[in-house]
Write a structure and sequence with these properties.
191 residues; 2 domains; 4-stranded antiparallel β-sheet; elongated
Length: 191
């Protein structure tokens, strides 16, 4: 019995030392020490999808290299299919941060778009917000909410289009880059 306990204790100590060495060596590794861009992206996405499992969208938005570190920006969006989406950016740094994210930065957190003057739509979520909040879009909000419609966002040049898709119809909203209404069309899809 003593031999079994002693063997088990020795095994645990050896395993602990081996794990500690692996962690120590990997923490000292340079960014070019064999971590491919694909495996880096996969590791970051896996972590982000686990941490933000209830988000509608989790994807890498941008990767930059500075001073031997890779800075990865992850887009995390909640309530994407609503009239009030929320967007956050989560920043990862490798190897300095060892895949641990910094605190998320709230990019879009209110259900309104541009109440203070000079506006610029930069993200899908802002186009969604502008499509139901810009001057002249009250009927779009009503349509989206009453029909439980889902937005499809696209951009062509300086025009953003948000199509609110319901069971039997689509309301298409065209907006300028600055969030002003260009056009609203109701399209019946049953014909």
């Amino acid at each position: 019995m003593k031999k079994v306990v002693l063997s088990l204790a020795l095994f645990i100590i050896v395993a602990f030392i081996a794990t500690s060495l692996v962690v120590l060596i990997s923490s000292k590794a340079s960014p070019d020490s064999g971590v491919s861009k694909a495996s880096l992206e996969n590791a970051v996405l896996e972590d982000a999808r686990t941490r933000f499992a209830d988000a509608d969208i989790v994807e890498i938005n941008n990767i930059e290299e500075k001073g031997g570190n890779k800075y990865i920006v992850v887009r995390v969006t909640y309530n994407y299919s609503s009239t009030c989406p929320i967007r956050k950016h989560v920043y990862y740094t490798y190897p300095e941060g060892l895949f641990l994210p910094e605190y998320p930065v709230n990019v879009i957190t209110s259900c309104s778009f541009c109440k203070s003057g000079d506006c610029l739509i930069a993200y899908d979520e802002e186009a969604i917000l502008a499509s139901v909040n810009a001057k002249g879009t009250a009927q779009v909000r009503d349509f989206a909410e009453l029909n439980n419609a889902t937005p499809l966002v696209s951009k062509l040049g300086n025009i953003w289009k948000v199509k609110w898709v319901a069971d039997n119809s689509v309301m298409e909203v065209a907006l300028t880059q600055k969030g002003s209404l260009v056009d609203v069309k109701l399209i019946n899809t049953t014909e």
